[in-house]
Amino acid sequence: MAGEQQNTFKSLLEILIVSTKLGLTSFGGPIAHLGYFHEEYIRRRRWMDEKAYADLVALCHFLPGPSSSQVGIGIGVMRAGILGGIVSFLGFTLPSVIVLILFALLLHSFGYTDAGWIHGLKIVAVVVVAHAILGMAKNLTPDVKRKTIALFAVVTTLLWQTAFTQVGVIILAGFLGFLIYKHHTLDDTSDEVKFPISKRVAIICLTLFFGLLIVLPILREATGMYWVAMFDSFYRAGSLVFGGGHVVLPLLEREFVPTGWLSQEQFIAGYGAAQAVPGPLFTFAAYIGAVINGWQGGLLATVAIFLPAFLLILGTLPFWDALRRNPNIKGALIGVNAAVVGILIAALYHPIWTNSILSAVDFAFAAVLFSMLVFWKLPPWVIVLTGALGGFLLTLLL
Questions:
Q1: How many domains does the chain have?
Q2: Which residues, 6+ apart, have CB-to-CB distance to 277 below 8 Å?
Q3: Which range marks the domain in which residue 176 is found?
Q4: Does residue 35 sit within a domain?
Q5: Cβ contacts of residue 148 below 8 Å, gap of 6+?
Q6: Does residue 31 lie within any of the structural domains?
Q7: Is omega for the bond preceding 142 within 30 degrees of 0, making it cis?
Q8: What DSSP letter does each residue of 45-90 carry, written as one string?
Q9: Residue 41 forms part of a structural domain
Q10: Which residues contact 164 (CB under 8 A, 6 or more apart)?
Q11: Helix, strand or coil for residue 244?
Q12: Coil, strand or helix at 341
């Protein structure tokens, strides 16, 4: 018994060390994160075989939420059970959470919201989201039908800017995808995945996931409690995002800016700063929470926005082998992914572009930053530092 506990402790410590290393060095967004994971977990340490890793990645792209974080959680669970998943998540996520909470506190304490370097970070946000849209559009809208679904999402989300519009667009796009692509087939010869979670535990996690989606808004209205409202907003954002971290931007903006919890300038400045840190982009929630209510708000926001990822990965992987072979599910997901591209394009225009590109000089600077990122292939942290420095210098020169 003692030997088994010691082995478990060693496994957890190993997971913590490796995931923290990744959390400190994994720049470049979710696709880059998956490359880092493959190198560290699969090639170097051989914790999983190639097919099991590919299946896990496929599942996490199928689910809403932060795909790279869900892959990391899944690997931790496979290595050392649920505790392994928690430890893997903490190592990968906490470095960027801590940095963004500190950034928010400094921003609040010293009143930097009107500084030139903050405007530079807002221009960085334009560049990063535009780059993300180009990559996603190429992969997710390759044909006219999917481009049309994306166009529908753009027009709808721009003309009807409500908290429910994006959810409705995603649901309708899923239905259209089911109708159009229900006979769409993909070559899938991978083996069945073995996962150390029982179907009973999985059903409990799924029940909790959907239960919180229903109960939290009711509690919010019934109690009027500040903390419940925050938890509900972040939990809903983490539950309804398909397509990765950039797509959470419009959901969070709708939840917190119109309500006055933080200003548009604070929101976009924090999003620009989030590009400078490694780890998952969903940690942007920690910044928002800290702006609203200090470090306690930052931690609450982090737990709330990542909780759906935990519940979904634990609740669906035992059933994934059957789901991934279902053409109806695949068709619906194709439609949802196309709509995600449209939602991102709408978010690029408003609030990002309308609050960041205010002059010809801003546009010219954005073009330079975009070239640095896309054509010269410079790392994101270089773009962020250049944006902040350039924004500061522009305020001195103009």
A1: 1
A2: 95, 96, 99, 100, 283
A3: 115-397
A4: no
A5: none
A6: no
A7: no
A8: S-SS-HHHHHHHHHHHHHSSS-HHHHHHHHHHHHHHHHHHHHHHHH
A9: no
A10: none
A11: coil
A12: helix
